[in-house]
Task: structure prediction
Amino acid sequence: MSSFRRLFPSMNGLLTFEAAARHGNFSKASEELNVTPAAVSRMISRLEGHLDDRLFMRTASGVTLTETGRILFDAISRGFSTMEGALREIRDRRAGIETVTLSVSTGFTTHWMMPRMAKFKQAFPNVDLRFQLIMGALSGPVNDVDLGMRFVPGPDDRHDAWLIMPELLLAICSPSYRDSRKGDHGPMEQAAETIINLSEAQPD
Result:
């Protein structure tokens, strides 16, 4: 923590920078923070001097982030979002609400979970579900969530695993494709060629 304070001696500087970067305008940031635009400008200049780098490019219509500013803003945004989630969870715990975060695919959430949400809320009114949505193949680590859906053969040293449902792949084709594959020895003579490719997230 002491090294962090040496990097950023003033938390007000981070709050001011985040507001200015989000709004792209010092005046709007000053309204949010209830200070003057000059105070925002001074705080940003002090932070830039401490970092010895430019965070904003000043323009007639406002400000835009430099590459350095973008790196810092992305990191601060993630940090503030995490802190906001923690504060919300603390508030919910006081109110008797339990938060459960799920890492699932967009398709599973849309087509399987959403139609069942009313029954879930009726059965568990004090559980607040939050979602980490994955587009595409269900792969990657299960971090910072309570439950995750993945294609895995079973549990490992770090995770318990339960089978939710089997995945069945059925090969179908049109009659014209079937007829095009017929040979002297019967239909689909050349079926040895690969017609289905599994992603890396789907074990054989």
